[in-house]
Amino acid sequence: MKVATLISTLMALPFAGFADDAAKAHLMEVGKTAYATCAACHGPDGKGLAVGASKMAPSFEGSKIVVGDPALLALVILKGIQKEGTTYMGMMMPLGAALDDEKLAGVMTYLRQSYGNTAAVVTAEDAKKYREQWKDIAAPVSYTHLRAHETEAEL
Predict the structure, then answer these.
(1) CA 88, CA 56: separation in Å to the nearest integer?
(2) Alpha-carbon distances, residue 5 vs 13, 16, 18, 95 (angstroms)
(3) Distance CA 94, CA 62 (A)
(4) DSSP secondary structure string, 44-78?
(5) Pairwise CA distance, residues 146 & 72, whole Å
(6) Which residue among 16, 47, 72, 93 has its CA within the 20 to 30 Å range from the CA of 40?
(7) pLDDT tens profile 89-123
């Protein structure tokens, strides 16, 4: 019986990779579609839409928030970011109500795997966990709040 179990396990291994690839491809497609909302400020190229000499929003390429702790990226997407200073013209609107867990995971995965980024995939289960983690935050967060969490994550 043990040999049969081992053989069936070994035979299934190559297919596990295909299942992961299919799941990632699905999340990327969901994320790419959901990104259309983000492109209004971040631009279709993810570099931040230029408004004269300023930008509406930051670039996603190499962004610490995008490629770092996925919980922080979820926080930004779910709750938004307050307008602070003049670095960016806009503020990040909260999108938590507009995205179910699959769409949240999709857009997070799309951002973490696009624009030169190669961070890990985020699953719908992860997204659900992040939504629960941040449920008590009712308003957009500040960059100061995000930097404090970044520092905690680096320790």
Answers:
(1) 5
(2) 13, 16, 21, 46
(3) 22
(4) TTSS--EETTEESS---TT-HHHHS-HHHHHHHHH
(5) 7
(6) 72
(7) 888 999 999 999 999 999 999 999 999 999 999 99
Token pair listed for 34 = 């959901």
Cα separation of 154 and 69, whole Å? Answer: 9
Reading the block at residue 43, the tokens are: 């631009």
Distance of CA 87 to the CA centre of its chain: 22
* Residues 6 or more apart whose Cβ sits within 8 Å of residue 24: 109, 113, 121
Report the C-alpha gap between 82 and 64 in whole angstroms: 18
The two tokens of residue 78 are 């779910």
